[in-house]
Amino acid sequence: MKQLLPVFALLLCFSINAQVTQEIFESYKLQERRDLQYYVPENYSKEKKYPLIVVLDAEYLFSTVTATAEFYSRFHGMPEAIIVGINQSKDDLRYEDCGFDDVSGLPTEKGKLFFEFLGQEVIPYLETSYNIAPLKMIIGYDITANFTNYYLFKEESLFNSYVSISPTLAPQMETRVPARLSATDKTLFYHLITDGENSKKDKQMPVLNTGIKAIENESLHYFFDEYESADHLSVVTYGIGKAFDNVFNMFKPISTEEYKTQILTSQEPVIDYLTTKYDMIEKLFGFRKNVHLNDIMAIYAATRKKEEFESLKPLSDLCKKEYPETMLGFYFEGEYYEQIGEPKKALRTFEKAFGMDEIDFLTKDMALEKIDALKADFGF
Length: 380
Fold this sequence. Notes:
Elements lengths: L19 E8 L4 E8 L10 E6 L2 H18 L6 E5 L6 H5 L11 H21 L2 E10 L1 H6 L12 E5 L7 H11 L4 E8 H4 L4 H10 L6 E8 L7 H13 L8 H8 L6 H16 L7 H13 L6 H11 L5 H12 L3 H12 L9 H15 L2
Parallel strand pairs: 3-4, 3-5, 5-6, 6-7, 7-8
Antiparallel strand pairs: 1-2, 2-4
């Protein structure tokens, strides 16, 4: 085979449903044909960017991952994603693909080729075929979960989200992973999931968890879940939904718990929470998401609860941009001037708000009440 780029010379392109296909991939690196599965959103658009999810052990995990992704994108705020599954159960390929040396803990020769197969063939092919967002997730189970860690050791990690389900860890992995995660300066999500059956006999897992928990690195977002009632097989269904919850949480509107435990307790200006949230969305998903009205109201409520009125001015500027036809921006700006002792500016600003569309709880009557109160108090 002379071509360096992967080609689909043979296609077994039968639809499982409207979005999922299976194909045979001719690999130059492996010098063999590999069975892959693809999930592409039914309404895929070249104008949008899509997170990429790579699923190892696809015969076991792919259907659960795709069902979870479809459910979350439809009902739970997650963006639609493109998913590729690598089939590895036939002839126990998973042990060849993801095997490691029992002494050094490094991949076998076949493992090194499989590493390059994903990084230099499969993912580049998808990036040229679809509009892929910066967020790339890899999911593995057991020995394939251990294998995902090898991508951490590249100078520039291929993935920025790792879901490791009950990994069978290679020697020294429990110390190598924390050391690498502590050194990263890129935003990275690492989710470690274990089951009650495995955790009772696994001596490396507690060391790995403790080591990662001890890391002080703002770029790292670490999650650990131990499901004591799950065995080594059922843990898959327990863990994937929670992993999606954690990684894609920022895409959802601010929740009541988030408001109470993160915004109200933060020492930073409350507007910074909103700015950071949407900057992170743009960085990871490749587009600027419109600010949800729920999030604006949560930040507004926090400015009043914490009496942090300085955040009202940048919040009002944001509202003028996001909701330009409504009262939001000028009403919040009027409150800002009112709180800093600028009644004339407050009056003029509330008058502007009165002439704009009502939204949510803000009504023209509320703006009029502010106007009348300022005139009565200051004799304007």
